[in-house]
Each structure stands twice: as structure tokens, then as C-alpha cells.
Amino acid sequence: MNPKDKSGATSLTLTGFLVVLAVCLLWGGSIPTIKVSEHGIPPLVTATGRIALATLLLFLYARVIKEPVMLPRHDFWHGVLLGIFFGFTMLFLYLGLVFTNAARGTIFYSTKPFWVAVGAHFIMTQDRLDLRKVAGLTLALVGVYLTFWGSGAGSLEA
Fold first, then answer.
1. Computed from CA positions of residues 139, 140, 142, 147, in that sequence, does the dihedral angle turn out positive or negative?
2. Is 133 exposed, middle or buried (0-12, 13-18, 19+ CB in 10 A)?
């Protein structure tokens, strides 16, 4: 059982902290690893290998915990569509990293929350953008722009 603070929120245990740290290290090392791997392996081969390995590990995990692997019939095509969108995300990430360095790739990739918020505005009626949200998103994008502004920022050398 996790200890709770005075507000009733659950605090993070040492095990929880270590798991979060491991996930951050794995995900944080993802883009630099992609960048290193492109020196000898074509980006699409690396992406395909990564997705195949992830699929195998997910399948094995599901078998161990005795969970079904396939989506229910009524959700199947939604899953296929999401898989296609994710595949394009990975495709553009791997191909885009050919034209820039890992640090810039990470910053560009980290603008996903902006695009999710904009997309949600048009797709989800309960998640509309208001003036405050637009101001925050604009400030975030200005921050990304300023990150690239200055000496050498216009260059997209790998």
C-alpha cells in the first residue's frame, strides 16, 4: 500500500520511483539511439526492427499475464487506424532524424502535446481550446522557436 500525504494524494514509493526513472531513461535514450543507429542501418529497417521487437515483447507479456492479444471485433478497425497513425509517427521521426541532430529531434518530437491539443479541439467536444489554452500553447511554441534561434540554429546539420 502506498503512503498518503495530508492531502490524500498517494506518494511515490522507492519502487515506483525506480520504475519511473527506468522508463524515463529508456524513452529519453530512444531518439539518440535512433540517431546513432542510422550510421550503418537504414532508418526504415531500424524502425521495423524496433516495432517488431516491441510487438513480440507485448505479445509475450500478454501471454504471461493471460490477457487476450487481439482487440474485440467492434474495436478492431479503430486499433488498425491508431496503428497506422503511430506507424506514420515513427516513419516521420526516423526519416526526420536523418536531417537533424538528436537534440533538435527530441525537441520537435516533444511538441506532440501541442498537436494533440489542437486535434482534440476539433475532434472532442469536451476538450475545446479557450483563450488561456491558446496562450499557453503559443508560449510553448515560442519557447521551441527560441530554442533554435541564435548561432547555428538555422542549420539542420546532422
1. positive
2. middle
Residue at 3 is within a domain: no
Based on its alpha-carbon atoms, the radius of gyration of the chain, rounded to whole angstroms, reads 20
Contact 91, 44 (CB under 8 A): yes
Structural domain span for residue 83:
20-100
Grid coordinates representing 64 are: 504471461
Residue 3 scores a pLDDT above 80: no
Alpha-carbon torsion, ordered 48, 21, 60, 79, to 10 deg: -60
Query: pLDDT digits over 29-83, tens only?
Result: 888 888 888 888 888 888 889 889 988 999 999 999 999 888 888 999 999 999 8
Q: Domain check: are 43 and 75 in the same one?
A: yes
pLDDT band at 4 (very low <50, low <70, confident <90, very high): low
Give the pTM: 0.65
